[in-house]
Every structure is written in structure tokens, then in C-alpha cells.
Amino acid sequence: MNRETTSLKKEEISRKWYVVDAKDQPLGRLASQIAVYLMGKEKASYTPNQDCGDYIIVINCDKVKLSSAKKLTGKKYYNVSGYNGGLRTRTLGTMLERYPEEMFSRVVWGMLPKGRLGRQMIKKLFVYKDANHKHEAQKPEVLTFKNLGGKN
Questions:
Q1: Smaller CB count within 10 Å for the chain: N or C?
Q2: In this predicted model, what pLDDT tens digit does every residue of 142-151 receive, in sequence order?
Q3: pLDDT of 83-92, one tens digit each?
Q4: Which ranges of the chain have pLDDT less than 50?
Q5: Cβ count within 10 A of residue 152
Q6: CB atoms near residue 50 (< 10 Å)
Q7: Alpha helix positions (H), the chain
Q8: Measuring CA to CA, which residue among 27, 19, 33 is closest to residue 140?
Q9: CATH architecture of 15-65+96-142
Q10: How far apart are CA 122 and CA 124, in angstroms?
């Protein structure tokens, strides 16, 4: 028997398009499952040093569930402009109300590897506030995750 480990080459990688409805799904659990699909870890042909993940379209990202109401005021997101006094702070409630797409992509980015490979993976994530998206031509399959659970 030949038991050699083979790595995928860029030409051999096949990608699919999936659409995920985030309505009433727990935010962190959903984001971790999406990160797995962006990395390609659910595939048998997963190669750690290659971007072999799929394209993910997330709709209704402003309707996600949180495990605690305290997170709306307690969790903070920071941006630094590079200038003195250039720290901008936003709470999760503000991000969910005004910038739900940025909030969701930041949560998923926190679960991806950092560096050149992670930046390549996050480009395959498309997040939309409502149920309309512009990727109908790719014929995305509906992706549902079972047992995400959550306390609410």
C-alpha cells in the first residue's frame, strides 16, 4: 500500500458557493462554523498551507442572537488611526445597529489564521444586512448548521 501524504496544488482546489442565513443563530458558534468552511477544514483534501476553503455568503447578519444582553454594552471593538488620541471605541450594540456587516466579518476574522493566508481566506466571505445579495449567478447552495444551540 502506498501511504504517502499528498498536498493539493492551486489547480486542484475546487470551491463551492454557500449561503448562510444568520437569523436567530448564536453569533460566536455560527462564526466558528463559517471559519471552518472558509479554511476548508471540513474537506478530506484539507491542506494547512493552502487556501482550499469555499465561498460563504451570510445574509440577515443584523438578526443574530447573543448569549447575554450584557454584551451589547460591555463588549467593545477598537480601531486605532495611528495618530495620538486616534482610538475609536464602539460597543457591540452600536456595531450591531449601525455596522452589522463589519461586526460579523470582524468576528469571523478573529477565528481565522493571521497573516497572508488568513487575509486571502477572509476575502471569500460576503456579509449582507438583509436577505438580498448579488451572488445569484454563482448558484449558491443553502448551508445549515445543526446543533448550534445557544442559551436563548
A1: N
A2: 999 987 875 5
A3: 999 999 999 9
A4: none
A5: 10
A6: 18
A7: 27-39, 71-74, 92-98, 100-109, 116-122
A8: 19
A9: Alpha-Beta Complex (3.90)
A10: 5
